[in-house]
Design a protein that fits this description.
Elements lengths: L40 E3 L2 E3 L3 H5 L3 H6 L1 E6 L8 E2 L7 E2 L1 H13 L2 E6 L5 H6 L5 E7 L2 H4 L2 E16 L16 E5 L3 H16 L5 E5 L2 H10 L4 E5 H10 L6 E4 L8 E11 L3 H16 L2 H8 L6 E7 L5
Parallel strand pairs: 3-6, 3-7, 9-10, 9-11
Antiparallel strand pairs: 1-2, 4-5, 7-13, 8-11, 8-12, 8-13, 8-14
Length: about 325
């Protein structure tokens, strides 16, 4: 499955023996005193201040170090990106979310680049405390890490600016030429929808598969297709950024605001750190309640995938 398939679902799970459990922060020495609570942080135009009660609930090792070590795989827009080509400075929805949660907890979320397929094994080995990298929360992964779910997303529909064909749902694609990237879940989604198109008497979707989504977008620009079906976060980001928002727009189906075949993405936390999992969940709920989470998601054009409640281990498969 390519990186543009529905979710980042190919990350392997390694079941480690219990004898490999490590200390909470993985450090050979423990600082003698609690690190100072971090100063307020501004994310997506919102200034966030530490919550002392949440800070106090953190594991002792995290409080003393003043940081949470976070693994992420860059790039994967709009979740993970570098500020500019050649830069190692990170940005993106996941990075901003980490800074916001860290601000609430009064510690730094220190992001480090890690190849995607090595993230869960590295968490199990104690190299990191958590991972924020558009990881799909599934039951297999829940065996070895805990998740705090922060978004629900699936496939979305990208259309030309102004939506000339008035496309809102998958049914509206029946009888039209539609672009997808080859061998993705989006191609499977359209193939499966052909029976529904026939039932509606609208004709089959003329699925145009391209090796790269950039080719699919080119077909949409030229009018060869009426839509491009891709992951909803990628569709939202493309609509927001291509030609400064003048080229495309996102078709939002009110019955599938998170996208089609949506499943949760979660912040993965080491099972050795249950206090951290609980604190992250409470911090995320605080960001939901005060509207900060919506501001962060809107910054990246993906407001519809934000959760309304911070849940733990909510896998649907």
């Amino acid at each position: 499955m390519s990186r543009s398939a529905l979710h980042r679902t190919t990350l392997p799970v390694v079941l480690l023996a219990t004898g490999l459990a490590v200390a909470a922060c993985g450090s050979s020495t423990t600082p003698a005193a609690d690190a100072s609570v971090v100063a307020p942080v501004t994310v997506a135009g919102v200034t966030l201040t530490p919550d002392q009660a949440l800070h106090d609930a953190l594991p002792d090792a995290v409080k003393k170090s003043g940081k949470v070590r976070v693994a992420t795989d860059v790039p994967y827009p709009p979740f993970e990106m570098y500020v500019s080509e050649g830069s190692k400075e990170m940005t993106g929805l996941d990075y901003d979310l980490g800074q916001a949660i860290g601000a609430k907890l009064g510690v730094r979320f220190e992001f480090q680049a890690q190849k995607f397929d090595g993230i869960v094994p590295a968490l199990q080995a104690g190299k990191y405390d958590a991972a924020i990298s558009a990881i799909t929360d599934n039951k297999e992964r829940e065996q070895v890490v805990d998740f705090v779910d922060y978004s629900v997303s699936g496939s979305g529909i990208l259309v030309a600016k102004g939506n000339p064909q008035k496309i809102t749902t998958l049914d509206d694609l029946c009888g039209h030429a539609v672009a997808v990237q080859t061998a993705t879940n989006q191609q499977k989604l359209l193939d499966k929808h052909q029976d529904k198109c026939r039932e509606l008497g609208r004709g089959a979707v003329d699925v145009q598969a391209f090796p790269k989504d950039s080719d699919a977008q080119l077909a949409l620009r030229s009018g060869k297709v009426v839509a491009d079906v891709l992951t909803k976060p990628a569709a939202g980001w493309t609509a927001k950024t291509a030609d400064n928002g003048a080229a495309f727009e996102l078709a939002d189906d009110p019955a599938a605001l998170g996208g089609y075949n949506a499943s949760p993405n979660g912040i993965a936390v080491s099972k050795n750190l249950p206090q951290l999992t609980d604190a992250v969940q409470k911090a995320l709920q605080s960001l939901i309640d005060d509207g900060s989470l919506a501001r962060i998601y809107d910054k990246y054009g993906v407001a519809s995938i934000a959760v309304q409640q911070a849940t733990k281990n909510s896998a649907v498969d």
